[in-house]
Amino acid sequence: MGVILWRGRARNVLAAVLSSVLLSVAFALAPCGVSRASDPLPGDAEAPPSNTNLLLYYNIFTNAGVLEPPHGDGYAKDTRVSMNIQALRYIRTFNIAGMLSGVQVVQPYAIFLGDQVRGLPVMPPSGGPGRVSLTHSNGFLQPSFGAFIFPIAHPATGTYFVTGFWFSPPIGQYNQNANLTITQNLWNGELEAGARTLLFGTPDSQYLGAELWGEGYIYGSNDDATLAGIGLPGPARLSQQPTAEIRFYLPYQFYPATRAKFIPGIYQSFGGKQYYTLPNGSRIDAGTRTQETQLRFMLSSFLSRHWQILLNGQFDVASHGAPLQRELELRVVAAF
Q1: Quick check: helix, strand or coil at residue 288?
Q2: Are the C-beta atoms of 312 and 281 separated by less than 8 Å?
Q3: Mean pLDDT throughout 9-33?
Q4: How many domains does the chain have?
Q5: Of 94, 288, 319, 331, whose CB is crowded by the most CB atoms within 10 A?
Q6: Is residue 285 a contact partner of residue 20, using CB atoms and an 8 Å limit?
């Protein structure tokens, strides 16, 4: 059994306002935001049984380090922003015109761990490395609502195609006065599609599969954004350009009795430029993008017919306009 999986990711945890005037004196940190509803994991493109309820629990630890600007080398090498994200998700499946379909909802909750610090690229007046403690807020992220359908589902050959959509209203706990907050307070919508097949073997034996996902996102604007700490007037409007993402996995089922798998994968995102519009109509590039290259390594197995567990470790090898991320995730699935 497979499920279409959601995993809210902590993206744009740090953001610098990159203007030539401010670059040498200060950096404003835009809100941390889990701005994307879904992050499909291996097995998401397998159709679960019809008329099934799925309850999923996620626990994700993420640490952001070196901030990589859109162009040039990284800076703020002493930066540390750490978070724990937990989420509950419910999925209900059914048939429409003979095709497996479903609806789903997810609600994440995030907290910052320990002291969040920012290394400065300039020396403070007192000399020595510059480090600034960042204000932050915890709470509920924006909920996400979605639906999906499987136009192609051939369990005997392990071949599937699924498509779906998500939307997320800006009703999370947004704190415009904090350097780091858990949501960007933006409407966002997503279209996604995933395909899966086997390269050799059968679903009931050892096999090597291939799974490919593509997503596209559009965003609204946050009219209550501020540029705290750099003396610019507010409120400002925060806008984000569309984002595209690709994921590719090679699941290897090495123990068919429990459907245990080892799954390497790669993730790549594009676009997502953010900018502020000031009250006078001028624009400032926020210096943030969703241009990230990430490697992933996962283990998954069924514990029984109704319980599945997945462990996921992933790390960025390149990022432009965002910090380098290191993440560990536990996901537990219950079917009933």
Answers
A1: coil
A2: no
A3: 32
A4: 1
A5: 288
A6: no
Asked if residue 80 lies in contact with residue 62, where contact means CB atoms within 8 angstroms, the answer is: no
- Can you give the residue range of the structural domain that contains 119? 53-335
Q: How far is residue 111's CA from residue 140's CA, in Å, rounded to a whole number? A: 9
> Is residue 295 left, alpha or beta, with left meaning phi > 0 and alpha meaning psi from -120 to 50?
beta
The two three-digit tokens of residue 91, written as one number: 């999925």
Q: E strands along the chain, which residues?
A: 53-68, 81-96, 99-112, 117-119, 131-133, 139-140, 144-154, 159-168, 188-200, 207-219, 221-225, 236-240, 243-249, 252-255, 260-271, 274-277, 283-285, 291-304, 307-320, 322-335
CA of 76: how far to CAs of 120, 128, 139, 318, in Å?
5, 14, 26, 15
pLDDT at position 52 is 96
| Single pTM value for the model | 0.83
Answer yes or no: is 15 within a domain.
no
- Distance separating alpha carbons of residues 211 and 86, to the nearest angstrom: 26
| 325: confidence class by pLDDT, cuts 50, 70, 90 | confident
34 found inside a domain:
no
Report the residue count for the chain: 336
264 occurs within a structural domain: yes
Question: In this predicted model, what pLDDT tens digit does every residue of 276-307 receive, in sequence order?
Answer: 888 888 888 777 777 889 999 999 999 999 99
Question: What's the CATH number where 221 sits?
Answer: 2.40.160.40
Q: How far apart are CA 301 and CA 281, in angstroms?
A: 54
Amino acid at residue number 24 = S
Classify residue 123: in a domain, yes or no. Answer: yes
pLDDT at 133 over 80: no
- Residue reference for tokens 């960007």: 184
Do residues 228 and 179 touch, judged by C-beta distance below 8 A? yes
Using CA atoms, how far apart are residues 179 and 17, in angstroms rounded to an integer? Answer: 12
SS3 track for 107-160: EEEEEECCCCEEECCCCCCCCCCCEEECCECCEECCCEEEEEEEEEEECCCCEE
Q: What is the pLDDT of residue 69?
A: 64
